[in-house]
Write a structure and sequence with these properties.
The complex is a heterodimer of chains A (about 150) and B (about 325). Chain A is mainly beta. Chain A has two domains: about 90 residues, 2-Layer Sandwich (Alpha-Beta Plaits); about 50 residues, SH3 type barrels, CATH 2.30.30. Helix content of chain A is about 15%, strand content about 40%. In chain A, the strands form three sheets. A five-stranded antiparallel beta sheet of chain A has the order 2-3-1-4-5. In chain A, strands 6-8-9-10 form a four-stranded antiparallel beta sheet, with no helix packed on it. Chain A has a two-stranded antiparallel ribbon with strand order 7-11. Chain A is elongated. Chain B has ten helices and nine strands. Chain B is an alpha/beta fold. Classes of the chains: A mainly beta (about 150), B alpha/beta (about 325). At the A-B interface, loops of A face helix 4 of B.
C-alpha cells in the first residue's frame, strides 16, 4: 500500500484522480465543482510520488465520470490517471489523453471570433506541441494558457 | 450540413483553381447571360463594403439572377439582437445562395454549417476573403499566362493585409518566389513565413523599395501602409513615404510586370503610374466581376461545360 493511500481513506464506490500536478489540483477541484458534492470527497496535495516527485490526488465517493467530463479533465491536465472503484475493488484504470478535437470545452481567445459572439459550440483541433487551433477563426493558442467555456 | 459553400479557397488544389479560372475566362468572353434566370441571390452585408457588394450584385444581375439583401446591419434584426444563425435560417427560406460579409472571424464557416443553401464568404473580419483571392489569381493568370514560377513582390502592410496572406497561401502551390518588402513593424507574420518554409516556397525579405529592388518582379502587389497600424508614430513618419510607387521607379522593370492593388488606394501608388502599361489595378477590379460570376455559378452547381455550351448569352 502506497504512503498516500494510508493518508486518505479507502473508497467503497467512486473515482480516484491520481497523478495530478500539484499546481493543478485546485483548478481541477474548481472544474469539477467539488463544493457541490454531498458524498465524501478527499483531496490530497504534495503527496510523494515516485514518478512525479510530488503530486495531487482526489477521491470522490459515488462519482463516475462521463466521457465529456474526462475530456475536460484532459484539457486541464493531459496526463492524469483515473481509477474507478466498485465494492473496494479497482474495476478500471485509465490514463487520460487529449482527444484530437475538443468540442465546446475551450473558449477561443480571439474576441472577434464568431464563437465568442454567437450562442454556439466551440471546436478546437489539437495540433502538435499542445497547440489548439480554432475551427472558426483559425487562431491558435497554447493548451497551458486556455480558458474553459 | 454538406453543401457547396465557398468559405476559403486556400485548400483548393491546382485543378480546382484552374477550373474556376477557366470559368472566369468564359465569363470574360460573355459576361451577360441567363444562366441564373429564376434564381435569387441574397447579399447580406453585416459590415458595409460597397466595392465587394457592387461587384457581387453586378455578377448576379449579369447572370440573370435577382438580388435581395441588406447593405448595413443597422436596418436588420441583428441590431435587435437576432443571432447570425437565425438571420441565415430566415434568408435561406427565400434565396438560392447567400453572399455574406461579416466583421466577425469564422462567421461564414458557421453560417455554412447552419443552412443547406450555399454560402459565399465575401470577407469575415480579417480572416478570409476568397473572392478577392480568386480575382487576384485570375489577374495574375491573365497577365502572365500562367501561375507557375513567378516572382511576386508584396509591398507595404504585410502584417495586417488580409489579401496578401490569402494570396500567399493560394500561390504556394505554384512554386513562386516571394519578395516581402515592408517596414519592420509591418513585416510578414511568422506564421506565413513558416507556411512558406513548410511548403518549400522561396521568399526574400527586404525593407528597401527602389527601382533596383523591384527590377525582377513579374507581379508587384501593392498595399496601403496605414497610420493606425503603427504603435510608434515616429516610425510611421519615418517609413510612410518609403513604400510609395512612382512612375520613375518603373524604368528597370520587366516588360511583363503588372502592378496589382486590392483598392482603395490612397497615395501608395502615385497617379503618374496610372498611365503606365504596368498599371493593372483597375483591370484587376474589373476581373472581380468574372471571378465572382464563376464563384456564384460554381456553388449553384453550374459546370464549366454548361457555361461553354451556353449559347444563350447576350452580346456585349
Amino acid at each position: 500500500m502506497g504512503k498516500d493511500q494510508k493518508l486518505v481513506a479507502a473508497l467503497e464506490n467512486g473515482s480516484v484522480i491520481d497523478h495530478i500536478p500539484t499546481d493543478k489540483l485546485f483548478t481541477i477541484a474548481q472544474l469539477l465543482h467539488l463544493e457541490k458534492f454531498t458524498e465524501p470527497v478527499l483531496i490530497g496535495n504534495n503527496l510523494e510520488s515516485k514518478v512525479m516527485g510530488k503530486k495531487g490526488l482526489i477521491k470522490i465517493s459515488g462519482k463516475f465520470f462521463t466521457e465529456d467530463e474526462i475530456r475536460k479533465l484532459a484539457v486541464v491536465c493531459p496526463n492524469i490517471r483515473i481509477t474507478v472503484i466498485k465494492n473496494y475493488e479497482v474495476v478500471e484504470k485509465r490514463e487520460v489523453t487529449l482527444p484530437e478535437t475538443l468540442t465546446d470545452i475551450v473558449k477561443c481567445a480571439n474576441p472577434v471570433c464568431i464563437t465568442n459572439n454567437e450562442p454556439m459550440k466551440t471546436v478546437f483541433y489539437v495540433k502538435d506541441n499542445n497547440i489548439l487551433k480554432c475551427r472558426y477563426c483559425g487562431k491558435e493558442q497554447k493548451l497551458n494558457n486556455i480558458k474553459l467555456k | 450540413m454538406g453543401n457547396r459553400s465557398i468559405v476559403s479557397i486556400a485548400d483548393y488544389d491546382r485543378e480546382k483553381i484552374q477550373y474556376l479560372l477557366d470559368m472566369a475566362t468564359e465569363f470574360e468572353k460573355h459576361p451577360n447571360r441567363n444562366l441564373l434566370k429564376g434564381k435569387v441571390v441574397a447579399t447580406l452585408f453585416f459590415e458595409p463594403s460597397t466595392r465587394t457588394r457592387l461587384s457581387f450584385e453586378t455578377a448576379a444581375n449579369r447572370l440573370g439572377a435577382r438580388v435581395i439583401g441588406f447593405t448595413d446591419p443597422k436596418v436588420t434584426s441583428s441590431s435587435k439582437g437576432e443571432t447570425l444563425k437565425d438571420t441565415i435560417k430566415m434568408v435561406s427560406n427565400y434565396a438560392d445562395v447567400i453572399v455574406m460579409r461579416h466583421k466577425l472571424e469564422g462567421a461564414a464557416l458557421y453560417a455554412s454549417e447552419v443552412t443547406d443553401i450555399p454560402i459565399i464568404n465575401a470577407g469575415d473580419g480579417s480572416n478570409l476573403h476568397p473572392s478577392q483571392t480568386m480575382l487576384d489569381l485570375y489577374s495574375i493568370y491573365k497577365t502572365q499566362g500562367t501561375l507557375d514560377n513567378l516572382n511576386i513582390y508584396m509591398v507595404g502592410d504585410l502584417k495586417y493585409g488580409r489579401t496578401v496572406h490569402s494570396l500567399l497561401m493560394s500561390m504556394g502551390k505554384y512554386t513562386p518566389t516571394f519578395h516581402f518588402i515592408a517596414p519592420k513593424e509591418l513585416e510578414m507574420p511568422e506564421e506565413y513565413k513558416l507556411y512558406c518554409k513548410q511548403h518549400g516556397v522561396k521568399y526574400i525579405e527586404q525593407q528597401d523599395f527602389t527601382e533596383d529592388t523591384i527590377a525582377d518582379a513579374d507581379i508587384l502587389y501593392m498595399t496601403r501602409v496605414q497610420r493606425e497600424r503603427f504603435t510608434d508614430l515616429m516610425e510611421y513618419e519615418r517609413v510612410k513615404d518609403a513604400y510609395i510607387l512612382r512612375a520613375d521607379m518603373l524604368s528597370k522593370c520587366r516588360d511583363n510586370m503588372k502592378i496589382l492593388h486590392p483598392l482603395p488606394r490612397v497615395n501608395e501608388i502615385q497617379y503618374d503610374v496610372d498611365d503606365s502599361k504596368h498599371a493593372y489595378y483597375f483591370d484587376q477590379a474589373h476581373n472581380g466581376l468574372y471571378a465572382r460570376e464563376a464563384l456564384i455559378c460554381d456553388v449553384l452547381g453550374i459546370t464549366l461545360d454548361e457555361i461553354k455550351n451556353d449559347k444563350n448569352f447576350i452580346e456585349k
